[in-house]
Write a structure and sequence with these properties.
eight-stranded parallel barrel; alpha/beta; single chain
């Protein structure tokens, strides 16, 4: 089946609110494509100005993180209802930086996936392996385990709305990129696992992104693969080149 392509920019901890608005303006005409879902996942402080800046365009707003409680004594955290009210539609969950730097485990990530759906947000669920796991040839088992844990108790109807981002950690910000065949192998593995955990119809609907240093030069080849439905873009999402990826 033909799945709608989704290209999401993960701005990470970049851009002040005024810089964010300027970038939205710079990218506005470059990312026009009615056949693609375009998402800017931005720092929390940028969400309100970015939501305002992209009104009337084809761009959707995403957030990079949130906490599982709706409100309360959780200093420094932001809740899913807060994000929803601010205009957020998508939320990145389980990014390798959240896992590695901030110690988020699959139990918490599973809670976040369920909370996001309950709040009406669309999760972009990240998975991926380190260089050590890739070299040890245990990356397939690792990714199967991540996805199985992260989707525990998540329904098939929810999974159909899910976006899964495969991000080989060894190819993020390193200049290394998985070959199109390596990326397709794992994205295909993820789709097969979804069919195994749920059914083929669910696997056919779930959208799977590649998230390891996709850029204007390699996007077309990666996106030509049958199981790669888009990209989760880091550094290249902060440049005019992001428009070339959207239109690849």
């Amino acid at each position: 089946m033909a799945r709608r392509r989704i290209i999401a920019g993960n701005w990470k901890m970049n851009k002040t609110p005024s810089e964010a608005v300027a970038l939205c303006e710079e990218l506005k005409d470059l990312v026009k494509n009615d056949d693609v879902d375009v998402v800017y996942c931005v720092p929390a402080i940028d969400i309100v100005p970015v939501a305002e800046a992209v009104k009337g365009t084809n761009v959707h707003v995403g957030a990079e993180n949130f906490y599982i409680e709706d409100k309360g004594a959780f200093t420094g955290e932001i809740s899913a209802p807060m994000l929803k009210d601010a205009g957020v539609e998508y939320i990145i969950i389980g990014h390798s930086e959240r896992r590695d730097i901030f110690g988020e485990n699959d139990v918490l990530i599973n809670q976040k996936v369920k909370k996001a759906f309950a709040a009406g947000l669309n999760p972009i669920l990240c998975c991926g392996e380190s260089l050590a796991l890739r070299k040890a040839d245990t990356y397939k088992e690792w990714i199967r385990r991540q996805i199985t844990w992260d989707l525990d108790g998540v329904t098939a109807d929810q999974v159909k709305k899910l976006v899964i981002a495969y991000e080989p950690i060894w190819a993020i910000g390193t200049g290394e990129t998985a070959t199109a065949d390596q990326a397709e192998e794992v994205c295909g593995l993820i789709r097969s696992l979804i069919a195994e955990l749920y059914d083929q119809a669910t696997a056919d609907e779930v959208r799977i992104q590649y998230g390891g240093s996709m850029n204007a030069g390699n996007a077309a080849e990666l996106l030509s693969k049958p199981n790669i439905d888009g990209g989760l873009i880091g550094g290249a999402s902060l440049k005019p080149d992001f428009g070339k990826i959207v239109n690849a």
